[in-house]
Amino acid sequence: MEKLAKSRFITLEGCEGVGKSTQLKMLKEYLEKTGQPAVFTREPGGTPVAEAIRNILLDKSMEISPSVEAYLFATARVDHIDRVILPAKERGELIICDRYIDSSLAYQGVARELGIDNVLALNSYAVEKCMPDKTIFIDMDPNNSWRKQNGKKILDDRMELESDSFHGKCYEGYKELAKRYPDRIAAIAPNLDKKTTHESILDVLRAGGFIK
Ligand code: TYD
Questions:
Q1: 8 pLDDT band (50/70/90 cuts)?
Q2: How would you write 107-170 as a 3-class SS string?
Q3: Residue 140 neighbours by CB distance under 10 Å
Q4: Please, what's the largest Cα pairwise distance for the chain?
Q5: Is 16's C-beta closer than 6 angstroms to any atom of ligand 1?
Q6: Of 8, 17, 62, 88, which has the fewest CB atoms closer than 10 Å, so is most exposed?
């Protein structure tokens, strides 16, 4: 029998509206169908404290400075790491997380212009204790996704309501990260056919020994 990787902390990243939720759902169904248990979690969130911080971060009536925003995401992450990710890692479980540190690096580091290295520094807890073993980046320009397809989705949270140029910078940020961490980050060019994208994700995860 093939051996699975020792640590299996997988994150999924990408801009708004690129089909990340659909791909997570398809991955979940595949793992269930093939009898591979996994912990599915998300950021910001995953614990009561982190979900409460999420509500502040996404509340469109809040005016939040870039630095406070970065610290709030990082704080929510510390609670999530301690209560969900590290315990699951210790139990040897497969963890699939919807967004993680690369969202902070792309959104706060690049789009909010705090700088990738500064945002890495304020996420030192995650950097030291818990970096992903593999990150799937859905490599699609958000301005070609539903953000440009009128009426498909109502823009209703503080981050979604940001300008096209902000979301374009997030995408540039992700592309920079994919260059900076070529071993960890696998860029998946989405196919119009979501099944093909799903298969590409499975191929990457199987090749790394993260799933069967
Ligand atoms: P969410 O509704 O979960 O976004 P999506 O459905 O697109 O995954 O909202 C999370 C938002 O927070 C999203 O706009 C990305 C942003 N974000 C950051 O800016 N920094 C971070 O560290 C994280 C985890 C998310």
A1: very high
A2: HHHHHCCCCHHHHHHHCHHHHHHCCCCEEEEECCCHHHCHHHCCCCCCCCCCCCCCCHHHHHHH
A3: 21
A4: 54
A5: yes
A6: 62
Ligand 1, atom nearest to 101 Cα: 22
Amino acid identity for residue 113 in this structure: E
Q: What are phi and psi of 152, to 5 degrees?
A: -70, -35
What CA–CA distance (Å, rounded) separates 96 from 98? 7
Please state, as a whole number, how many other Cβ atoms lie within 10 Å of the Cβ of residue 148: 12
Taking only the tens place, the pLDDT of each residue in 74-133 is 999 999 999 999 999 999 999 999 999 999 999 999 999 999 999 999 999 999 999 999
Model pLDDT for residues 18-43, shown as the tens digit of each residue = 999 999 999 999 999 999 999 999 99
Give 138 Cα–ligand 1 centroid separation in angstroms. Answer: 14
Question: Ligand 1 pocket, 159 CB below 6 A?
Answer: yes
Distance in angstroms (rounded) separating the CA atoms of residues 136 and 205 = 9
Please give the domain boundaries of the chain with CATH numbers for all domains.
8-207 (3.40.50.300)
**The pTM is what?**
0.96
